[in-house]
Design goal:
The structure is a single chain. The chain has 114 residues and is an all-alpha fold. Helix content is 76%, strand content 0%. The chain has 2 helices and no strands. The longest helix is centred in the first third of the chain and has 55 residues.
């Protein structure tokens, strides 16, 4: 290795010193690059979380427009009809999906808190 040999002249000593400085700069740049890469990874993870939250909020707003009541207009209905039964089943599925989403968010928060 060039840095471990004894310099035979002043010029070789200057070259070795320059090479040491260059290696030091390279080490500094590599550590800076690793820091920047880790920052990008963390920012990407944060953006993904925000994107998921935004999508969930938009979906919640979209679903909340349908309303939480099955029969909310006060008009009489035949509650045994196939159409109403289908509507009840859809309402139950939406409620279960919303509850599962809340549970997933809570688990994610607990995971981040630890």
């Amino acid at each position: 290795d060039l840095l471990e040999t004894e310099p035979e002249s002043v010029k070789e000593q200057l070259y070795q010193d320059a090479l040491h400085d260059t290696y030091d700069c390279e080490t500094h740049y590599k550590s800076s690059l690793a820091g920047m890469q880790s920052t990008i990874v963390l920012q990407s993870m944060f953006c993904d979380q925000l994107s998921n939250r935004l999508a969930a909020q938009e979906e919640k707003k979209k679903n909340s427009k349908k309303g939480g009541q099955l029969v909310g207009d006060g008009l009489p209905r035949l509650l045994t009809s196939d159409g109403f039964h289908h509507h009840v089943v859809q309402h139950q599925r939406a409620a279960e999906e919303e509850e599962a989403g809340h549970e997933a968010c809570q688990m994610e928060r607990k995971g981040r808190a630890v």
